[in-house]
Amino acid sequence: MTDTGSGSDAPAFRQLTRPDAMTPELREQLVDCWTAVVNTGGAVIAADLPMPPVGAADVGPVVDRLAAALDPDRSRLLLAGVDGALAGWLLLRRDLHPLIAHCGVVHHVQTHPRFRRRGIGAALMERVRLIAREELGLERLQLSARAGLGLEEFYLGLGWTEVGRWPGALRVAPGDDRDDILMSIGL
User: pLDDT per residue over 104-123, tens digit each?
Assistant: First the structure.
């Protein structure tokens, strides 16, 4: 990923808003990040992704579908780079139906394991709020997080509010059911 970083740990951000913005190099970095996150216990799921361990053959088609759906008004990838490497990313989506067009949903928040504990996730979450408000005119964001990994504390620390739970909705393994935590933040 090419970025405008100054060689420090501060991430440089880039948005992808159209399918043709996805280069083969960037696709490879997204697949690598997602594979590493899932295989190190990250709570990033997709309906068409198998349970861990996963490989590039599993993750690549999911990244391709996300890229194919990019649209400046409906679906954007936000990328964080450090020294030219993809350090993390997320997907921001919105539905244009008038009942919910003022709200967006944040999906697939990821920090590559080699960039963890460096503020990348928090920086992504702060930047997505600005993009949602200033570029898309959104008034509220929501997300879903898996219980049992400290994610609710992370999001609460960034100003998000827990608005509900689906108890035991996520089966990580036999006998290991986790709550799906629903969170929201006003912009």
Answer: 999 999 999 999 999 999 99
